[in-house]
Design goal:
Largest sheet: 6 strands, mixed
Number of strands: 18
Shape: elongated
Strand order of the largest sheet: 1-3-2-10-9-8
Order of helices and strands: HEEEHEHEHHHHHEEEEEHEEEEEEEEHH
Number of helices: 11
Strand content: 15-25%
Distance between the termini: 149 Å
Length: 448
């Protein structure tokens, strides 16, 4: 019970503190099982801490993981109306023919609701329905693909590019694990997206051309009728092509802890679905070996910074802007947690307002930075008008303008001195000239 209360309290804090926060890399070494995925990560959705990491910035082919972006644009479109109808077309049938993609088998002219269309794309991963959505919401496939790439740029997915809305293999459709995490975190903020991807079964009511039918998720972690079922798992999306291998983006929640696991390019073994087995192993490893830990509070000063232009104090104490909570191994030793401060400058001038950000602090555990927190002024400091006046006077006399004036004065003094010296030399020369009377020659004598 105490642990549940602790988790609830922290979940409220964490839900607010990690929105749009960058993930911090501090992966740990897993033991007891292997990971075959060529790229992947296990990340805390509560704190952004990465517990497992492998090639998260390497280029990978997304296969149907692409449809996370497709559905995101569907739900954000002004044309989206959950009850509105969309009909299958011959154009879509021609586009999907021969691609090898999973298809819905909707008949040409068959109408389904737009909400049902979301389920067919995200939960059942039907390629024809992804094309249908692209044409309906984008006007054309090409225009919808442009929308996908524009959205990727908007979200800062610098390692991502799309060439189709389905995830069919193409050298120009690629992404990274880090970008998938960013996109999925964004997509899950939409409640419809979240509900759809967490649903294992969905029934489409009778249409104008078919009786009602039930769709199943492609994520076997969510399906209790499979050997891969994991009771704490939720969405999000599966993917497969020969080039991409088996791919899975999933989430799991237990006892107040929430994780996302992304595994890309797992072996395409028909007898053993590594993406499901290894995701479940990673979740168990995290739930059993890690817990929330507050490693920094906002009530004790971290360091001080000198203050100028104040008669009240010579320094101000800096505090963490907010408590720092992260996920650490259960046996983590507090003595191995180090705070490394980085001040914005060597000193600060008054006035200082309480809460002003004057630096940052890296939280380091086991020689890995697990987070960064702003350092803020703990008190306000008033400025002294006298000291400000002295500062401006000093500043005036040390300004570039005054330096020019000083230079001109020195130059004028030098010129004046040179002129005085020149005049004195001229006078000395004049005094050295000897006067000889007219008509008198040297050696003349008076004879009598």
């Amino acid at each position: 019970m105490p642990k549940k209360i602790f988790s609830i309290i922290f979940s409220v804090f964490l839900a607010v503190s990690v929105i749009f926060a960058p993930i911090s890399v501090s992966a740990y070494e897993i033991t007891g099982f292997d990971i075959t995925a060529k790229a992947g990560m296990l990340v805390s959705m509560d704190t952004g801490e990465i517990l497992y990491s492998n090639n998260i910035d390497n280029k990978v082919f997304p296969a149907s993981i692409t449809k996370i972006m497709t559905v995101t644009l569907m739900l954000e479109s002004e044309k989206y109306d959950p009850a509105g109808k969309v009909a299958m077309t011959k154009e879509v049938e021609d586009l999907i023919l021969g691609t090898g993609s999973a298809v819905s088998n909707f008949q040409i002219g068959e109408e389904i609701t737009q909400l049902d269309l979301v389920y067919t794309v995200l939960m059942s991963s039907f390629g024809d329905c992804a094309y249908l959505a692209a044409i309906y919401y984008g006007g054309s496939v090409d225009e919808f693909v442009n929308m996908m790439n524009d959205k990727a740029n908007e979200l800062g997915l610098t390692g991502t590019h799309y060439s189709n809305p389905v995830g069919l293999h193409d050298e120009q459709t690629y992404t990274t694990v880090r970008d998938i995490y960013t996109l999925t975190t964004y997509a899950l903020k939409n409640e419809t997206f979240k509900t759809v991807c967490e649903t294992p079964r969905h029934t489409i009511e009778a249409t104008n051309k078919s009786a009602k039918r039930t769709l199943s998720t492609t994520n076997f972690l969510q399906d209790p009728n499979t050997n891969y079922y994991y009771q704490y798992a939720k969405g999000v999306k599966t993917g497969y092509t020969d080039e991409a291998g088996r791919c899975l983006v999933s989430t799991a929640s237990y006892n107040g802890y929430n994780y996302m696991c992304i595994l890309m390019n797992c072996p395409p073994n028909a007898d053993k679905r590594y993406e499901f087995l290894e995701s479940a192993n990673l979740y168990r490893w995290a739930f059993n070996n890690f817990s929330f830990k507050q490693v920094a509070n906002s009530t004790e000063p971290v360091c001080e910074i000198p203050v100028e232009l104040s008669l009240d104090t010579d320094f101000v104490s800096l505090y963490f802007e907010k408590p720092f909570v992260t996920v650490l191994p259960n046996g983590a030793d507090d003595s191995t947690i180090v705070v490394k401060t980085k001040l914005s400058s060597d000193k600060v001038e008054a006035p200082v307002k309480k809460g002003d950000v004057l630096g940052t602090a890296d939280i380091v555990y086991a020689e890995q930075v697990i987070g960064t927190v702003n350092l803020v002024a703990g008190d306000s400091v008033k400025a002294s008008k006298l000291l400000i006046g002295i500062k401006y006077v000093k500043g005036f006399f040390s300004s570039v303008y005054m330096k020019i004036v000083y230079a001109l004065i020195v130059l004028a003094i030098i010129i004046f001195i040179l002129m005085i010296i020149k005049l004195n030399i001229a006078r000395l020369r004049k005094r050295k000239v000897k006067y000889i009377p007219y008509g008198k020659k040297k050696g003349d004598r008076n004879e009598h």
